[in-house]
Amino acid sequence: MIFRPFEEKDTEELLTRVSECLTEGESVIREIRENIAAGNYFGGVAEEDGRFLGFATAREGFGFTVPHPELEEEIRKMFPKGRFFVGDEMWVSEEARGQGVAGKCLKITRDELVRRGGNYWLTELWVYPDGHSPVKDVAEGCGEKMYEKLVPMFYRDLGKYGMSCPICGDDCKCSAMVRVYQLKPEEEGKNG
Prior knowledge:
CATH superfamily: Gcn5-related N-acetyltransferase (GNAT)
Helix content: 25-40%
CATH topology: Aminopeptidase
Shape: globular
Strand content: 25-35%
Strand order of the largest sheet: 1-2-3-4-5-7-6
CATH class: Alpha Beta
CATH architecture: 3-Layer(aba) Sandwich
Order of helices and strands: EHHEEHEHEEE
Largest sheet: 7 strands, mixed
């Protein structure tokens, strides 16, 4: 298995996985394409024999899958000067699960965020209606956890934005564990 940085040539494979397995919606695909074209989309990829086995991606910016202005304001007040990056997508194939693929892809992503001068990594970890979060433990390698909040029914408005939940469909009852990880102190990064 090979681990390497995400490259523009990976776009179609990544978009296929996002469409099949993660949050569906043309708005998500359009946003990813725009960020890739602008050079603002990066991460780690695992592959073997030319097949994608996993990835973790991020982009510079601040925001969530669906808007939560009150939460965004709360976090911005806590970290007013830091340069933020947003965890975007993470996926590992069934055959590669349990082999450390997600953690290695996240490390590549984290190293790139630090290289680009990031102070904070904003993540929203999907929490199913039954309380299970598939990436909760893996995300611990993102940096020092500075903020954490469980937001019930976080994704209830997906349909308003042309998306549907891969677990619940159009009536999403999933929550999110919102976290901010410190990549490096604000004085060491570029202020945003």
